[in-house]
Specification:
The chain is an alpha/beta fold. It contains 16 helices and eight strands. The protein has four domains: 105 residues, Beta Polymerase, domain 2; 124 residues, cca-adding enzyme, domain 2 (Orthogonal Bundle), CATH 1.10.3090; 44 residues, no CATH class; 46 residues, no CATH class.
């Protein structure tokens, strides 16, 4: 593909290979990214597309979500590496084979487990790196050196500058420890987050961590509509007064399909989780009645009647179509009298 050309594997792919981690995506620095990406796509069966017109970068999308990025190498490889964020990402390996180019001792930092900025300007050049430094600590189990940590603390005022989509992409990958580190460094408060609620949710999934940290403020981030709905359910969830079938039904009606997450977020215990799971196992395949079988005039009342029928069914007071119709007739008669 690029035989005989000035082309290098750079960035996270080299880092992850050295650490023995799975290499998911490749980043190749070369002279002609467009031509190289098209040649690679033809050989691999991938799909090439322009990733950044501003930077002249191309990407080839492969099966199983893997990607190969081709970025322009305008000067020498050492000049390219000098623009990288951290020394552990500033190591290059020639595509044609041979030893690594490591002008900033990134391999040594990999062995020592250290996150170290390539230069004092890395966070000015791209403030997203403030979050990335913490995320790399979190994912790799590394720690920033003192100089880099001080640069992060000095750059706190820039943490809101990147686009919301880029900020969210970093936050979604943070564990609880990562969020706590963000707070320790002063990076979380400017984004509207706090870890107090998260501390009681050890092992929470990524979406729940975001809701716990940002609460209603999550709407300021460009999250998906589904995550917005999920957040709304969790933040409004109220624990049932008891574990009766009726109370569990009402809780589920307000929180499904996220009832178990909502119970956990609201502070419910294992008994509530088990009650929800058991209720799910006994969910009927079909409703007792459809709206057009109620014998009532069309309107919003139809939905309320159907909800009541399902609640009474869950509570065990009715179990047949005939009993459901009798409930409607009796209750409608009482309302008219």
């Amino acid at each position: 593909m690029l035989r005989g050309e000035d082309a290098w594997v750079v960035g996270g792919a080299v880092r992850d290979e050295v650490l023995g981690r799975d290499v998911i995506d490749l980043d190749i620095a070369c002279r002609e990214p467009k031509r190289a990406s098209r040649a690679y796509a033809k050989r691999s069966g991938g799909a090439p597309f322009l990733l950044s017109e501003r930077h002249g970068a191309w990407r080839v999308a492969l099966a199983e979500g893997r990607t190969v990025d081709f970025t322009p190498l305008r000067d020498g490889i050492e000049d390219d590496l000098a623009t990288r964020d951290f020394t552990i990402n500033a190591v290059a390996r020639p595509l044609a084979g041979g030893g690594e180019i490591d002008p900033f001792s990134g391999l040594d930092d990999l062995r020592r487990g250290v996150i170290r900025a390539v230069s004092p300007r890395v966070f000015e050049d791209d403030p997203l790196r403030l979050l990335r430094a913490v995320r790399l600590e979190d994912e790799l189990g590394f720690r920033m050196d003192d100089g880099t940590e001080q640069l992060v603390r000095d750059g706190v005022g820039r943490v809101r500058n990147p686009a919301g989509e880029r900020i969210l992409a970093e936050l979604e990958r943070m564990s609880q420890a990562g969020y706590e580190r963000l707070e320790e460094l002063g990076l979380l408060s400017p984004l509207g987050g706090a870890v107090d609620r998260l501390r009681g949710l050890g092992g929470a999934p990524a979406g729940m961590r975001l809701v716990a940290v940002f609460g209603e403020g999550l709407r300021r981030l460009p999250v998906s509509n589904e995550l917005r709905r999920y957040a709304g359910v969790l933040l409004r969830a109220e624990l049932p007064a008891d574990l009766s079938p009726r109370a569990i039904h009402r809780f589920r009606r307000a929180t499904e399909p996220w009832a178990i997450d909502a119970a956990r977020f609201a502070g419910g215990g294992g008994d509530l989780t088990r009650a929800i799971q058991e209720a799910r196992q006994h969910d009927p395949a079909e409703p007792l009645l459809r709206g057009d079988e109620l014998g009532l005039a069309p309107g919003p009342g139809i939905g309320r009647w159907l909800e009541r029928i399902e609640e009474e069914r869950a509570a065990g007071t009715i179990s047949t179509r005939e009993e459901a119709l009798a409930l409607v007739r009796c209750s409608a008669s009482d309302e008219r009298s």
